[in-house]
Each structure stands twice: as C-alpha cells, then as structure tokens.
From TrEMBL, chain A:
One of its GO terms (cellular component) is plasma membrane. GO terms for biological process: transmembrane transport. The keyword Electron transport does not apply. It is found in: Cell membrane. InterPro entries: BP-dep_ABC_trans_perm, MetI-like, MetI-like_sf. It is a multi-pass membrane protein. The keyword NADP does not apply. This is Carbohydrate ABC transporter membrane protein 2 (CUT1 family). It comes from the Bacteria. The chain crosses the membrane at residues 21-43, 82-107, 119-142, 154-174, 195-220, 251-274. Belongs to the binding-protein-dependent transport system permease family. PANTHER family: INNER MEMBRANE ABC TRANSPORTER PERMEASE PROTEIN YCJP (PTHR32243:SF18), MALTOSE TRANSPORT SYSTEM PERMEASE-RELATED (PTHR32243). Keywords: Cell membrane, Membrane, Transmembrane, Transmembrane helix, Transport.
UniProtKB/TrEMBL annotation, chain B:
Belongs to the binding-protein-dependent transport system permease family. This is Carbohydrate ABC transporter membrane protein 1 (CUT1 family). It holds the Pfam family BPD_transp_1. It is found in: Cell membrane; Membrane. The chain crosses the membrane at residues 31-56, 91-113, 125-144, 170-192, 219-237, 278-297. It comes from Pseudonocardia hierapolitana. It is a multi-pass membrane protein. Keywords: Membrane, Transmembrane, Transmembrane helix, Transport. GO terms for cellular component: plasma membrane. SUPFAM superfamilies: MetI-like. The keyword Membrane applies.
C-alpha cells in the first residue's frame, strides 16, 4: 500500500520521475485551460469579451445579466426557470429510477432467475441505444398526448439515462454483499422484507447515494432529449446555455461563459463529492475499485 | 416489566420462527421485484419499436396517412451517397477518438500510478472535463475555436487565419474536443485496474531484472486487458452515436464534414420532418451498434475469464 511503484529505477527525484511529472503537467494545462478560460470570460465586460487578454478587472455583472430579464430578452429563456426545470427533471428522474431500480437491482444481484440476464441486458442496451431512435417517435407521441415541453415528459424519458445506471451499479453492490448477512437476519426471525430494509439496504447505502448522484449528473448534462422534446416553457440549462450563442444576432461570449459556468457547477461539485465511487459508476459496476 | 419492551427491536429468535413462505411464492419473488423495472422497459421499448417501425413507413410530417412500404426507405438510403458519407464520418470519428483516448488514457494512468504529490493533486482534478455537460464543453471550445476572437489561435500563435472548424479541419477539431472530455474516463478506469493488480508477479520479474517496458508489455497489459476493453467498449459505442458537442460546434457542417449518423438522423427527422428517413438512419446505426456491442462484449467475456484464470 505504501508504495505503488511498479518498476525499478523509479526513485522520487530521478530524471524519469521529473519527466513523468512534466508530461502530466502538459496534460493538465490542456485539460484545465478551457475551464479556466470559461471562468475568465465569464468575468469580463462586454468590451473586453473579444480580447484575448488574461489581465483585466473582473466583474460579476455577467452572472446578474444571465439571471435577469435582460438575459431572458436575449435568449427568450428565463435562466432561473431553466435551473429550476433542470433540478425538477433530474431529481424526479432519479427518484423514479431509485424506487423502481432498487428492487430490480436487488432481484438481479441476489437471484439468478429465468430471464434475469435478458432483463439486465435489455436495460444495459439502453446505455448504448442511439437516442434519436426513441426520441423521434416520442416527439410524435408527445405532441399527440400533450407531454411535449412538460416536466413529466422529460422525467419519463430521462429514465433512459438514469435507470440503467442505477440498476447496474446497485446490482454490483448487492452481489458484493455477503448473502450470509441476510440469512443471519432471517434466522433471527426477520421477514424477507425486514431483512432487506434493515440489513441489505443500509449496507449498500453508499452505493445508492453514489449511483443516485451520478445519475443526477448524467440527467443534468443531457442535451438531446430536451433539445427535441421541450419548447420554451420547460427548457433545462443545457439547452438554455446554447441560446446565448446567437442571442440578439450578436455573440455574447462573456454571457455564454457565465451561463455555462452556472450550468456546469452542480455536476462538478457533485462529482468531487463522490469521486471514490466514480469508477464503479462510470463503468456500470464492470470495474470495481 | 414485561410490557415495557422497547419498540422496533426485533423479537428474539427463540420466540418467533420465520414465517413459512410457500416455495412457489419464494420463486416468484425476483419477478415481483423486477415488475416495475420491466414496465419501464416496456414503456421505453414501445417508442423504440415504433421508431424501428417508422423505418418501414413513408412517414413524414406532411404525410397524413403513412403506409407500410417495406424496405423502400432502406433501398433509398443505402444508395444515397450522403448516408455513406455519414457512415464514413462516424467511423472516422469513432476509431480515431477511441484509439487516441485509449493510448492517452493508459499513459496518464501509468503516470498517475506513481503516486507522487503531483500525481495525487492531478488525480483529483482529472475528471473535471468528464463531468461537465458535453454540450457545454462544445460551447466553450466553440468560443475558443473562433478564428478572430478565440483564444486558441492567439495562444498558439496561429494568427487569425487558421480555421479550426473549416471544411478539412472540423472533424479533427470535434475529435479533439472528444479527447478532451473523455480521455479522463479511460484514465480513471485503467488506473483502477492497475491498482487492483496483484503485486507479486511484478516483484518477481523485477528480481529477475526485467525492464520496465518488458513488465508493462508482458505482465501489465495482459492483466489489464479486461479493464482496457471495458473502456474501449464504452468509448467506441458512445462515439458511434455522438451528437452533443458536435452538434453545437458544427451542426454537422461545414457541408457534411462532421455529419455523423445521429446528426444526419436529426436533420432528417427534426429539421426536415422526414420521420421515416431519420428512423431508417437510426435503425441502421442501431444495427451497427448492436452487432459491434455483441462482438465486443463476447471479447470482453473471454478476456475476463482468461484474466480470472491466470490469477489462480
């Protein structure tokens, strides 16, 4: 544990080690520069936005503009409403996915039953399905039954993003939990349901939290569903951000960057809080760490 | 005293036998638990199947009563050069992006694995690009790509003439953004894999005087193969249906230089309201994705079995 070094000759201050750190540094300049530039742009005034200077007097007025009526006039989307819409849609989709997904994940993690693999692989195939194949018919259906541009319509379709994630991650957590723990509870006179609620569920609670938060990030970051299935009433942030690009026939670099920063912040904060669980989540439990 | 037993504590084992549940009901349990999920699956599969069905209709917004026309859409689209351009663009994108991200991701994972102070600091911020919405990544890079006002030409000293999103450069620029977003995905998966490897084979071969490169090629890569494959599968599948950042950066242009299959389907279905054509694009893409996924997952299964066998 103390040393993770794999090869000989990898002393701490050897030329090889310094070279490796330098190579890492190059990647991180490349990786972080766009984010830094987004922050800088967001702090610039209209007059400075097209300059490529790094030194300027920062201002917060872009954030105020994005969230004000001025921003709404430019984009015909109220950005504060867009944030609220994103929160409602994502929390709604995650809650539905949890209520439905936890029992299914438990069933799949505990028992091999006829058709269990088929159900699990059908759920997994959602992960790789081309979204438009589902969205185009939904676009037609939603227009007919009045779900177009509604939160309910978005929550429903976001299941495609959140459900597979939650079911597959939690299945791997339930599989890793020793069945003896529940059997012991059953011997102590617990019913199956009680054993699940009192023993199994608390043990996978970190997994549930991580899966729910990761599903939230994915739902929040989704763009193609709301692009096609929402209009001007329930636009989420990902679509609202792009509206600043052509706002008023003029490019507002600084406003776009401010809007992008606001929209990017929740996933970034959530991701940093669940970093330990990310590997397992991103790989659907196929890679455990 | 007997009446003051605290609430909610389970009854002691001696007093309460588990309620006997008939075997047939126990057998049903996993099915009952899965019913809600299966209902959702059906709810999502219905539009999916409907979408597949559209591919066999002459369905467009202007067509009042679509009728079944069999394989006519497929015949039309398979003989349309625009479709094959989309296939070429999509494969170009998917292959280049997956290869570059895999190589870079493995490299970064190896560098981070040394667990120096620099590595530990960088590991924490590595995933940031992966966590912001791809469409927002597209927006940011779009601002930076602008030839006149964008920061890239200024920083790289290219003047205002280099057009990142021009006819011949656009595909490489959208791949660059893909590499920026998703290389961390490969890196953290591979890093998790490296850290799960047993130490003994490496120590043994170090004693034998094996070079670092020899150990990497003969020990680490074979043992890492399942992890790398998982990353490759996820990346390749996602690249085949890429949409978000490409759409906001180029909308498929200039011309059809970055018109991937999903963007082609979007243009057909949503812009021109030719639902059948868009659905035929998607149906063909789905077939490609499905066949590729089946193949890659079978390769993964073999690799995982081999890796598991080699440990015993």
């Amino acid at each position: 544990m103390a040393s993770r070094e794999l090869g000989p000759g990898e002393r701490r201050f050897s030329p090889a080690s310094i070279g490796a750190d330098a190579a890492l540094l190059v990647w991180f300049v490349f990786s972080l520069f766009p984010l830094v530039w987004m922050v800088l742009l967001a702090l610039k005034t209209n007059a400075e936005q097209i300059s490529t200077y790094f030194a300027f007097t920062p201002t917060l007025e872009n954030f105020a503009t994005v969230l004000s009526e001025e921003g709404e006039r430019l984009t015909s989307v109220n950005f504060t409403d867009a944030i609220l819409t994103s929160v409602i849609n994502c929390v709604g989709a995650v809650i539905v996915s949890l209520v439905i997904g936890i029992p299914a994940a438990y069933a799949a993690g505990r028992w091999q039953y006829r058709g269990s693999n088929d159900v699990m692989f059908t759920i997994l195939s959602f992960r790789f399905a081309p979204e438009l194949m589902v969205i185009v018919p939904l676009f037609v259906i939603y227009n007919q039954i009045g779900l177009f541009d509604t939160n309910v319509g978005m929550i429903w379709v976001l299941q495609l993003v959140t459900m597979p994630l939650i079911v597959w991650i939690l299945r791997s957590y339930f599989q890793d939990m020793p069945a003896e723990l529940e059997q012991a509870a059953l011997l102590d006179g617990y019913t199956r349901r009680r054993a699940f609620v009192m023993v199994a569920l608390p043990l996978v609670r970190p997994g549930i939290a991580a899966a729910a938060l990761l599903a939230f990030i994915f739902a929040w970051n989704n763009y193609v569903f709301p692009l096609i299935l929402t209009g001007s009433q329930h636009t989420p942030v990902t679509v609202a951000v792009t509206r600043f690009l052509g706002g008023g026939g003029q490019a507002y670099y600084n406003l776009t960057a401010a809007a992008a920063l606001i929209a990017a912040l929740p996933p970034l904060l959530v991701a940093l809080s669940i970093q330990r669980y990310l590997v397992r989540g991103l790989s659907f439990g196929a890679v455990k760490s | 005293m007997t009446t003051t037993a605290p609430p909610r504590t389970p009854a002691p084992a001696v007093q309460r036998e588990p309620r006997p549940v008939p075997a047939w009901r126990r057998g049903l349990r996993p099915y009952v638990l899965s019913i809600p999920a299966v209902l959702i699956i059906v709810g999502i599969l219905y539009p999916f199947v409907l979408g597949a069905y559209y591919a066999f209709l002459n369905y467009a917004a202007v067509v009042r009563r679509p009728v079944f026309i069999g394989l006519q859409n497929f015949a039309e689209i398979l003989s349309d050069p625009a479709f094959w351009t989309s296939v070429r663009v999509t494969l170009h994108y998917a292959v280049v992006a997956t290869v570059v991200e895999t190589v870079l991701g493995i490299g970064i994972a190896l560098l981070l694995n040394r667990s120096t102070l620099v590595g530990r600091v960088f590991e924490r911020v590595l995933i940031l690009p992966l966590m912001i919405a791809p469409v927002i990544a597209g927006v940011i890079w779009g601002l930076m790509f602008n030839p006149q006002y964008g920061v890239l030409n200024y920083v790289l000293g290219l003047g205002s003439t280099f057009d990142w999103l021009g006819e011949s450069t656009a595909i490489w620029s959208v791949i660059l953004v893909d590499v920026w977003i998703y290389t961390p995905f490969v890196a953290i998966l591979v890093l998790a894999g490296i850290r799960s490897l047993p130490k003994e084979p490496f120590e043994a071969s170090a004693v034998d005087g094996a070079s670092w490169f020899y150990m990497f090629r003969r020990l680490m890569l074979p043992m890492m193969w399942p992890y790398i494959l998982v990353a490759v599968i996820f990346r390749f599948m996602d690249c085949l249906k890429i949409f978000d950042h490409v759409f906001v950066l180029t909308a498929g242009g200039p011309g059809d230089a970055t018109r991937t299959l999903q963007i082609g389907a979007y243009q057909n279905s949503i812009i021109q309201l030719q639902y059948s054509q868009g659905s035929t694009y998607m149906f063909l893409l789905w077939v490609i994705v499905f066949v590729t996924a089946r193949y890659l997952v079978s390769v993964l299964g073999k690799a995982q079995r081999r890796a598991a066998g080699s440990e015993e």
